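Re: that chain you flagged

S.,

Sorry for the slow reply, it's been a week of failed gels. I finally had a moment to sit down with the sequence you sent. For the record, here it is as I used it:
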Amino acid sequence: MVLLSQELMPPETIPEGVEKEKQPWRTEYDVISTLKSMGHDVYPCGLRSDLEVIAKAREENKPQIVFNLLEDFEGQALYDQHVVSYLELIKQPYTGCNPRGLTIAHDKALTKKILSYHRIAVPGFAVFPMGQKVVRPRRLAFPLFVKSVVEEGSVGISQASVVSDDQKLTERVEFIHRQTNSHAIAEQYIEGREIYVGVIGNRKLQTYTPWELMITNLPEGALNIATGRLKWNPDYQKKVGLVTKPAELSPELQRKILLLSKRIYRHLSLSGYARLDYRMNNDGECYLLEANPNPQIAKNEDFADSAAHCNISYGQLLQKIITLGLSYNNAEYIII
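Prediction finished late last night. Pasting the structure tokens below so you have them in one place:
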């Protein structure tokens, strides 16, 4: 059974003239169609705000495992972790990250606090709660990158997200509060390369080729950041020359970032699969920006591409995710 948002239920076949890459349901289509082509019995289950839908689909189809593609519940990004908790309570095997790892990774401030404790480099940061006056701590120097503390998928991120004075900081924090209805986090902007590392596994971990995001035709004065427009608008991606490819790293630097990624994955109690987003400065130091459990796994997206670079086909990747879900033991994720 594939669990997904009802709004992202894909068609069985792509209508003529429709460009799949521009559709919000492209991940759901790729996963469902590929699993069917592999011989799996697949039952899409669309969810909005009623968990009873899961119970009914489970009773009718008796799935061996639920392939979890949910990114929210009732429109709330934080609520998907509770749906996964429900799956655990009813003892239904599922793919992807456990609820503890989702809870930790969803909170960007908590993630950074845990990693700082373990002496892993993260940008300096401060959280600005809704309804409170914006007062920048003296230790936090400009430029700062302002975003939601919980939203994913580059929601609320644009070139204006990087601010260089207190007035702009206040304006951007208030914008995030209004647009996302969530607290804002401001972190020190790290100039450098944007590198993603895919990690897969429960206790025994495997890393895929580090992947780099590059913008080859940036407008003059624009910053190399993954804005919402850049992430989701294929036409804009072509316009600015977006390229994602294997990161060119020395063997020593690649070994360092892969080992670091496994440490972070374990410290954050992650399971299933995740993408870790870094900024690497000119000295080769890597700063963890975000940990993304259950990342985008559409064909020709970063996670699947980095796996393919390790000679793992898309079908093999999905089968690996299923196998990990079937072997997951929640008792292993009680203590960080």
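What I noticed first: The chain has three domains: 2-94, 124-188, 191-333.

Talk soon,
D.
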